[in-house]
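Appendix B. One record, verbatim.
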Amino acid sequence: MSDVLDLKVFVPSRDFEESKAFYSELGFRCNWETEQLAELQIGDFRFLLQDFFNEQLVSNFMLQLMVSDADKWWQRICDSKVVDTYDRAKATEPEIQPWGQRVLYLWDSSGVLWHIAVPIEQDV
């Protein structure tokens, strides 16, 4: 039996207010916030967005979000227009990767890279 109750990652942001808006437009909700920290949630999953930026950290920072349908997430990204709205945001369409997942890549408004992925055998 584990005594672990929770695990969250601290995600850096170049512009805290802009990053909160970016994630909100993708469907994340803000559970609480202070001047330098916000807990963002989608479904049952949460992370801590921090008002902290370091270029070297961000250029190596990646998160993986496992989803049931990569195409729905691609459509969500397209519909939200975050790539058009935020200068540093970009995204690539879902593609099968050699490690056995179909992945789309999303860089947030600070340059943090999200791997939004689904195992090939589960993708419809």
